[in-house]
Amino acid sequence: MKPRLLIVEDDPVLGSLIQDFFEREEWDSCLAQDGEMGLELFEEQSYDLILLDVMLPKKDGFTVCKKIRESSDVPIFFITARVLEEDELHGYSLGADDYITKPFSLPVLYAKATTLMKRLRGNESLRILKKGNIEIDLGTKQVVIAGEFCHLPKLQYEILLYLLENPNRILTRDQILIRFWGYDFEGNERVVDTHIKKLRKAIAGSDCKITTVHKAGYRMEVPV
After folding, report:
1. Which is it for strands 142-145 and 134-137: parallel, antiparallel or unpaired?
2. Alpha carbon distance 130, 120 (integer Å)
3. For all residues of the chain together, what is the average pLDDT?
4. Across the chain, how many H-helices and E-strands are there?
5. Sign of CA dihedral 18, 28, 93, 67
6. What gap in Å lies between CA 153 and CA 18, rounded to an integer?
7. Is 146 left (phi over 0), alpha (psi -120 to 50) or beta?
8. pTM score, two decimals?
9. DSSP letter string, 59-96
């Protein structure tokens, strides 16, 4: 599966240049030109990296970063011409992973992005995702529910992980379909329902629950 990139940049030329460069390197990408649109795209699907300008119309980058961090730990790079130390410290305090200062080299930006992705994936063997009484070892892909090992087929494992990484957030059928079956899938969207039904059965002994949100999608309810 291709990594996904969200670019939030109000300069259409720079935004398009970044998008074209990453897509040539086999990334999927979306481009937003203001903070509100960036948050809307973030809510529509998940991303592996977000490139976020600081100075944006409607909602600035700091506001967008703070909102994203309420529900996701996706890596965020700030793109900025502002180099004041207090701005950098403020961005890091909100959860930014790095700063890219304009003007910058696209190959250097790409190298920073891929290095971060490799580091995160390399650390997966040391990471345990725990939501409620569901634990997933991201290295071995072992799933433990209420103390009992649970074997899941690969696709159901990936969907469960996706839901748990977005706790208490509504994910639409289209989001799930595009994420796991791709944009060009020609089958019935009810295939999502089938897998959700199987997952509900698999996690029935947990304190997490997959609920259906009428005319919206699904939500993994996780105890606080």
Report:
1. antiparallel
2. 17
3. 86
4. 8, 12
5. positive
6. 36
7. left
8. 0.58
9. S-HHHHHHHHTTT----EEEEES---HHHHHHHHHHT-
**First-residue to last-residue Cα distance in the chain:** 31
Block residue for tokens 């609920």: 211
Best-predicted range by mean pLDDT among 137-151, 164-178, 198-212? 198-212
Q: Are 142 and 129 in contact (CB under 8 A)?
A: no
pLDDT in tens, 9-53: 999 999 999 999 999 888 889 999 999 999 999 888 778 889 999
d(CA 117, CA 218): 28
For the chain, give the number of residues.
Answer: 224
What is the structure's pLDDT at 81?
81
Distance CA 192, CA 205 (A): 21
| Amino acid (one-letter) located at 12 | P
ω into 153 cis (within 30 of 0): no
Q: What is the mean pLDDT of residues 165-177?
A: 88
